[in-house]
Amino acid sequence: MSRTPLLKWLFYLNLLIIAFLVGYKLYLNISNPEFSSVHVEQLSELQQRIDNPDEYQFAVVGNINNSVGVFENRIIPTLNQSGVDFLVSAGNAISSGGEDKYRALYGSLSHLDIPFLLTFGEQEYEDFGSFRFYEHFGPYFYNFSLGQSQFIFLDSTGKTPWRWQIEWLKGLLSDTRQGPVFLFINHPLKKIEHDLLFDREDHYLPDSPFRDALLTLIEQHNVTAVFSANLPVFSRQLDDDTLFITTGGAGGLVLNDDTSFYHYVKVTVNGDQVQTELEPLEIGQHPAWRTLESLWFFIYSLFYVGYINFIILVSLFMVVGIKLHQKVFVGRDYYPNFDLDPTPWENQPLKVAMFTNNYLPFIGGVPLSIERLRRGLQTLKDSVLIVAPRYKEQDPEEQQVLRVPSLFAMGVRGEFRLANIFLRRIRRRVKDYRPDIIHLHHPIWMGSLGLWIAHRLHIPAVYTYHTRLEHYAHFVPLPGALFRNLISHALIKHFANRCSGVIVPTNSAEDYLRMIGVKTSIFVQPTGIDYERFQNLDPARLEERRTHFALRGKRVLISVSRLSTEKNIDFLLDAMAELKARQVSPFHLLIIGDGHERHRLQQRIEQEGLNDCVTLVGSVPPDEMPLYYRLGDLFVFASKSETQGMVILEAMAAQLPVVAVRSSGIDDVIIEGENGYKTPENLDVWCRQVATILEDEQHRKTLAEQAQQFAQHHSTDAFAQNVHRIYSWLLAAHHQEGESNQW
User: Fold this and answer.
1) Is residue 236 in a domain?
2) Which of 213, 250, 301, 683 could disulfide-link to 67, CB 3.0 to 4.6 Å?
């Protein structure tokens, strides 16, 4: 087996390991028995366990940090055999305050044969851990008595106001007991005498008034010992009659030197006599390995739940490493493979399954483009199955269209339909059809289903980038800026990169896809138009339509667009008001199309007195569109959401020059000064260009003739032949990839 397939399976194996272990961690969080008020249970067990409350032994540890390698596997077995009666953590028993860390700690402590108590420390406090500490163990500061001895636990994190603790502590220390007093506080009160590699001021109790008040009380009441953690060292200092012990060797980072090493402190109490003993723990038998072992245990003890987090870390590193290897060391050829031979597929009929979110009788650019491609492919003897939503007005006689019932419909007339892609009969019908290739016309919903089926059938999938999704944010129940600026681009990139190839209508659309990170093969192929339909029309019907709309003696502007927010119709109305105010040649704008904005736009036309120069025609059957185009002298367009603007080519085929707002879909179709003009979204500039054409008949005729010549090169037959070649190339590439078995 070559190295690339081996890396591929190693990559997936590590992803599987990560998914399994993360799932296991989640399982632990929800399946482990709940535990709360643990300190109450432990104190009860402690007092029952000790026969003579004035003679006992206990151990103090610090910086456990959930360490499996040291604390659970080394220190706990030692403590279970040491004879001590209970254990006290001086703080930092976990590496952070996450729920899994608290559950991990509880799991480790359950291996103890003796009771245990915890000091609330810096690590217990992090990541909202204070809430979990209170729920699972108890208050942040507390005390208990054992015979004549007092044990006092303080909160040094700032979670509890220090003045409150000082007043509480004064009451405890004024007790007339004669036994020893042990104070536990996570942050050391006194500066360590040794030079430390990682010594910082914030390792010590940061609140100086709190520290000064504590030291005063300790001196006044002869506190026997103060135990702290938060530093990876052992330090023993005697101030007057009080021992200040810092112990940080129960896990986490140690340096394995004379100061920083693994250990715990053993405390023996006999009446009012107290003896403390350092109990070092040797790790590593050979001196040559001491430094390496220190680094190993440091990394190892940062992560916990058995070996789970450590394995997750290693697997993540391997996943990243494999991806980097693919990026850096594996050669990539981004040019087309010129050695492919698509001839076997070019010379035979193909079976194509198309998936679309809308189709006829819904009138729009995508359905019309699909219909023209279908007719062109069938002329080439290709077979086409279209999977599309069901509509009330659909042709009952249509062949090779799988209509899918909708989950719900949107729009004024329910034109936007969310088809029920979960029906098994869709998959069965497509599978029985046995397509050679699947053609996707939308990157969501029906497109996603088609892509999934293509992968299941092991056939190529090609996606036509029809629509600039970022201009449809108003249809999406998400914050507009979030969808426009992030989600829409990420969605298209992800979908396109999962396809075998992408068809775009213009070079600017290809530039956009490359810019957002699409790496799959891209083919620039403008959508075809039925050029001949626009050439021979009945003069009598033209005259009837002119009379109907009262167009005699006027220059006629035509615009074809869905009446929707992204089509920028308001700009056209602003422009008509401006042209009317400038008193240019008499004109009338016919806006052909329908949509959810129609009522609002009609109200605006009436309120601004534009009825005499603007008419919302509504929907027109596709077969009658050539007639309406021929009514015009000029085609105007303001939409910026197009990837090509197929209606512009249709207008040119009907001998209409074009004035449009410049956008990515317009830029490659309009040749400035030859078949029209493209302007910025600037009302003054746009109106100036329209007025120039309306008032200069000779210039308008020249533009019209050149527009018609340009459109003649975009026939439906040429369009279908070119798409068939794209299918053949993708099938050849897919066949070669299957033979080479490369990633």
Assistant:
1) yes
2) 301
540 and 391: one domain?
Answer: no
Residue owning tokens 């798409």: 723
Mean pLDDT of 52-64: 95
Neighbour tally for 403: CB within 10 Å: 15
Nearest residue to 149 via CA among 217, 63, 241, 50: 50
Beta bridge partners of 715: 529
In angstroms, the CA 105 to CA 99 distance is 10
Give residue 192's pLDDT band: very low, low, confident or very high (50, 70, 90).
confident
State how far the Cα of 634 lies from the Cα of 589, in Å rounded to an integer: 9
Question: What CATH number does residue 230 fall under?
Answer: 3.60.21.10
Q: Which range of residues forms the domain containing residue 667?
A: 533-714
User: Any idea which of 83-92, 253-262, 361-370, 475-484 has the lowest mean pLDDT?
Assistant: 475-484
Distance CA 228, CA 30 (A): 33
Count the domains in the chain: 3
> Helices 488-497 and 507-516 sit at what angle, rounded to 10 degrees?
100
Closest by CA position to 662, among listed 648, 708, 652: 648
pLDDT at 653: 93
189 assigned to some structural domain:
yes
**348 and 265 belong to one structural domain:** no
In terms of domains, do 229 and 347 share one? Answer: no
**Of 496, 524, 552, which residue is a domain's last?**
524
- In 3D, which of 466, 362, 368, 371 has the Cα closest to residue 414? 362
Q: Report d(CA 133, CA 562) in Å as an integer.
A: 60
Task: Provide the CA 5 distance to its chain's centre, in angstroms.
Answer: 28
Q: How far apart are CA 116 and CA 122, in angstroms?
A: 19
**Residue 442, pLDDT above cutoff 60:** yes
What mean pLDDT is predicted for residues 176-194?
89
Q: End-to-end alpha-carbon separation of the chain, Å?
A: 13
Query: Do 408 and 469 fall into the same domain?
Result: yes
CA-only gyration radius of the chain, Å: 39
Are residue 85 and residue 187 in the same domain, yes or no?
yes
Q: What is the CATH number of the domain that holds 613?
A: 3.40.50.2000
Whether 445 and 419 have beta carbons less than 8 Å apart is answered as yes
Asked if the peptide bond before residue 361 counts as cis, ω within 30 degrees of 0, the response is yes
Q: Quote the crossing angle between the two packed helices 365-379 and 646-653, to the nearest 10°.
A: 70
Domain boundary among 524, 541, 564: 524
Short-list 590, 354, 589, CA closest to 453: 354
pLDDT digit string, tens, across residues 304-323: 334 455 666 667 777 777 66
Nearest to 465 by CA among 413, 391, 419, 518: 518
Q: Rounded mean pLDDT of 450-466?
A: 95
Please report how the helices 424-433 and 446-457 are oriented relative to each other, as an axis angle in degrees rounded to 10. Answer: 50
Q: What angle is formed at CA 654 by the lines to CA 653 and CA 659, rounded to 5 degrees?
A: 85
The pair of three-digit structure tokens given for residue 713, joined into one six-digit string = 């090169």
Do 507 and 477 lie in one domain? The reply is yes
> How far is the CA of 500 from the CAs of 472, 519, 555, 700, 726, in angstroms?
26, 10, 48, 44, 11
Residue 60 maps to a domain: yes
Same domain for 520 and 597, yes or no, is no
